[in-house]
Specification:
The protein is an alpha/beta fold. It has one domain: 3-Layer(aba) Sandwich (Dihydrofolate Reductase, subunit A), CATH 3.40.430. Helix 2 links the parallel strand 3 and strand 4. The protein is globular, with a radius of gyration of 15 Å.
Length: 165
């Protein structure tokens, strides 16, 4: 799972990201693309929030979860339930399967993932969509990188990996 959230746990504002941080976007691309043999699982609203130029996200199998069995989009595989999304990823021979949001999809997978790659954006009150409640006490955090704000990144961030204890 990969997520960016502010200090209040906010991951979105409406149907968009509350901030644009080039350093975090570069990390997202690097991790989720890997060697080009990865998949990303997202909800339909997350898919629709992607700029047209990034639908589908390149060099990854794009799996979109939707309750609408008739929903389809060019470049996306559709899954009605979590198990089917994982089946699609592994049937395509993907090495890693990344859960990329939104809130409902994170909630659906939070109990089955073993790693959460989290960027904490050092601000608060960023929006109205929150990461689901989870038991951080059952996870171990390893802080990997701290980035100060600069001309391209309005907010300082901390990137950490949380692993199930």
């Amino acid at each position: 799972m990969i997520v960016a959230m502010d200090e209040d746990g906010c991951i979105g504002r409406g149907n968009d990201l509350p901030w644009r941080l080039p350093s975090d976007m570069a990390r997202f691309k690097l991790l989720t693309e890997g060697d080009g043999y990865n998949a990303v699982i997202m909800g339909r609203k997350t898919w629709e929030s992607l700029p047209d130029a990034f639908q589908p996200l390149p060099a990854r199998v794009n799996i979109v979860m939707s309750r609408d069995s008739g929903w389809s989009a060019k470049g996306a595989e559709t899954a009605l339930y979590a198990g089917r999304a994982i089946e699609i990823a592994y049937a395509a021979g993907r090495e890693e399967c990344w859960i990329i949001g939104g809130a409902q999809i994170y909630a659906m997978f939070i109990d089955v993932v073993d790693e959460i790659h989290m960027t904490t954006v050092h601000t608060s009150g960023s929006g109205d969509v929150l990461f689901p409640e989870w038991k951080g006490s059952e996870w171990k955090e390893e802080i990997v990188e701290r980035i100060e704000s600069d001309e391209g990144n309005k907010y300082a961030t901390t990137y950490s990996i949380w692993m199930k204890s």
